[in-house]
Design goal:
43% of the residues lie in helices and 18% in strands. Strands 1, 2, 3, 4 and 5 form a five-stranded mixed sheet that branches. The longest helix is centred in the N-terminal third of the chain and has 14 residues.
């Protein structure tokens, strides 16, 4: 499943209001809950936090991919958040993260999760695409970037 197929304006937040790691995780899980994508907000948030406690999902180039397996979803689900100012996320390069791809997958499905991570890795190689995402002003603009 391509990332664009999981996205609607309701699961994209521009800009994020959160200023720290825990707030970002909560804000993105709340977006999925409001969109009706998860069955239990608290359990989903707990799964994301437990995974993050094992090691930061802050990558390089301002990208973070918090993800977890949870029975609160029946298929791979994603929310995207953009923080123009950046949030300290314990990233590999020590820099703030600006673009957050939060993914939740059912415990018995690995394939779609791995494919989405690979797609994010490919996108991350395009500095122009990453800059366009970071500078997006609306969820519709983010969605259009993925459609191009």
């Amino acid at each position: 499943m391509a990332i664009v197929d999981m996205l609607t304006p309701e699961v994209i937040k521009v800009p994020l209001v959160s200023r720290n790691k825990d707030e970002v995780l909560k804000e993105l899980v709340e977006i999925l809950a409001k969109a009706g994508k998860i069955s239990n907000l608290e359990r989903a948030l707990d799964a994301i936090k437990k995974r993050e406690d094992m090691g930061s999902t802050g990558l390089e180039e301002g990208i973070a991919v918090p993800h977890a397996k949870t029975d609160t979803v029946d298929k791979l689900t994603m929310a995207i958040g953009i923080s123009p100012e950046g949030v300290e996320f314990d990233a590999l390069d020590g820099k703030p993260s600006h673009i957050f791809f939060l993914m939740l997958a059912p415990p018995d499905q690995s394939g779609p999760h791995i494919q989405a991570l690979a797609e994010i890795a490919r996108m991350a190689r395009s500095k122009a695409f990453i800059n366009a995402l970071k500078n997006a002003k609306s969820s519709e603009e983010v969605l259009n970037l993925f459609k191009e």
